[in-house]
Amino acid sequence: METCSIGIGRENRMNKKAFKEPKIPSELAEVKDAPGLIEAAREEEGEIFRRQFAGIFLSRIDGSYVSFQQTVFQNCKFLGCSFDRASFTDVKFINCDFSNSSMNDIYFKSCAFENCKARGTDFYGSNFRHVSIENCNFRDAGMDAVRMSYVKAYHTDFTEASMSKCNITNVDWKDDCFKNVSFFKTWLRNIDFTECDISGIVISDAKDELREVIVNLEQAIVLAKRLGIVIKELEK
Length: 236
Hints:
The strands form 3 sheets. Strands 2, 3, 4, 6, 8, 9, 10, 11 and 12 form a 9-stranded parallel sheet that branches. A two-stranded antiparallel ribbon has the order 1-13. It is mainly β. The protein has 3 helices and 13 strands. The longest helix is centred in the N-terminal third of the chain and has 10 residues, at 34-43.
């Protein structure tokens, strides 16, 4: 598909060779009492290290300020939980459901989300560094003021999520749906949306967010209309 750029420059395009995958040992200690372990770590603002959470259902658990390292969450469901100001380093989330949980001001580093559901989850102010998101449902997620650097997102639904006032650099997004997403005051410079759905995105009246965004020809025609540009060849 033919592509074009609204503006010039590509220095923020992601260097895939620099992306850091999660480093997780082959042997992990299986968690038997997840609520007890998380509560104890929270009380001490401690860490949970080299653990395997499998098939666990957690309801209204408070994991705030806990540090999770070299850990795997698989087939877990978090109902109304809070992990505000927690940190996750070298962590994998596989087939997990965080819907409507609170995950504000979290630090994610070298993490992977695979086939996860985070519908309506609040990630306000969180930091995503070297994070992959694949085949996930992030519809209606609150991602305002989020910082993203080296984030890969493939085949993921962000429909009607809020991503206003974000700082986004070095990302690789393919086959994602950003339909009706609010990018209000988020500079989209050098972000490549050519293989994504960006129909109905919300931007400011000044439309500064679109400077140097990378889109395909079809997307450019739609955005041009929003910018008040008339393409005469298309009116014939």
